[in-house]
């Protein structure tokens, strides 16, 4: 049933395919130098040198050609409310979410322009007035365009502010609008970014879309469809083909791993695949490739690595925001970005809030936690720390040298964990692991998990004491999956049909921490709450040493902390276990829970 549904949805997506844009091949356009970028605006630019148009407060579009392929690069310039030619103005870039567009209305950034900042809001490649193919923050396409935008600003806006000859430059945006900040930081040869505020952004897209080797199929199909719908079928054919192939087959195409790794912050931090200039790939080994090409779908989808990784990033002051319930880019990814930027030497802070991608893919049947979240879906505070106020204070201090950001970001350099609205705690670092608990039945027997069962097996771990218990950090686990007998495990075939995988013992168990609530002195029966609505897949038989998804939750006195083992999870709805010959697996091992005791709520 699930496989039939995804095939129908995939065909529906293909039926929407129109006159798709050809994939960019790179290097075909004229390489315009910084001083050669045309103005491209519909209004006269404000100029301190000419003493013209200095009233400020305007918002206007600018379009100039990409240096890569001469596709349109579209931006919206939001002037400061009043242009000061004596002191001049720092520049802030803003980027939209995937498939979105630039902010055009006057007043879109009132807090920033009112404080004297110039803001440039960007139409990323392929969205909506920028041309070219959407390549998901390719260093050699979107990266080059981003560098050109900053070059254009320096060439045409003579009221910008400098320090020691370097442009004072900051950036804001969430999701795709966080990815561009990390890309520009690493791509700009002049290293002009001084302060960034990325939100709910990934560290490694291969982890985001394929954690533990299990395709996050719900998101894959959503991104494949929505990405095309909102970019006029402007996604790179390789992206579209990868997401659909992964959802249909349940396996992430091997040839796509380097592509998404190259488009990730992790590539610049450590380059784990050791990608080198000249490496590349295409869709030739995709199972569905011939059919997809006939529709057509994949076309000439291909990529080549051009920008090398130095396995280090430039120093920058970063205020990172992340939602622990975000089931596309989770807390673990924000922590990895945090660690990478800290190694570079900047002032780096990590704060969490309730906002995130989880509203697009709700996990059904969770109860109390979901209701609490939906009551304040746009809450962007970590306790008393407001994201917008913190952002302005961050730029004031880091770019202009005025004020004290610690007066707003009251946790200082500690990590701020938002638990519920109005309740937050801080810790000096991200806890990883914690108190160990065995995963077993009474008497030490392994825990049976029925494959394809959406209801969890509940393994009790601990009960919160009188002062409540804060879970904050990244749990870890070492768990073994078997068919219950080594002789049965030995019968598993290595290869079979690529869709049903009969006889391969293809089995995936989804693991997350949960809580059974105390009500009226009694534990509430039924399905427990899955903390943060997050699971980590354990894909395949054998022993798995994993980091589970990070949590930030206050457990009330008497509530029971449990481990939840699912045979089916809706985030992986069409890419979970397929071998009907393996209806049940047995799980044993240990989980380590980041229990912090009864930490007090942050107060003003």
In total, how many domains does the architecture comprise?
Answer: 3
Q: What's the CATH H-level superfamily name of the largest domain? A: Alpha/Beta hydrolase fold, catalytic domain
* Largest beta sheet: strand ordering: 1-2-4-3-7-8-11-12
Q: State the shape.
A: globular
Q: Roughly what is the average pLDDT, rounded to an integer? A: 87
CATH fold field value of the largest domain: Rossmann fold
Unreliable stretches covering 5 or more consecutive residues:
1-30, 294-298, 362-376
Structural class: alpha+beta
How large is the count of helical segments? Answer: 14
The end-to-end distance, rounded to whole angstroms, is: 53 Å
Proper CATH architecture of the largest domain: 3-Layer(aba) Sandwich
Give the DSSP E fraction (strand runs of 2 or more residues).
Answer: 15-25%
Radius of gyration: 25 Å
CATH class of the largest domain: Alpha Beta
Number of strands: 30
Percent range of helical residues: 10-25%
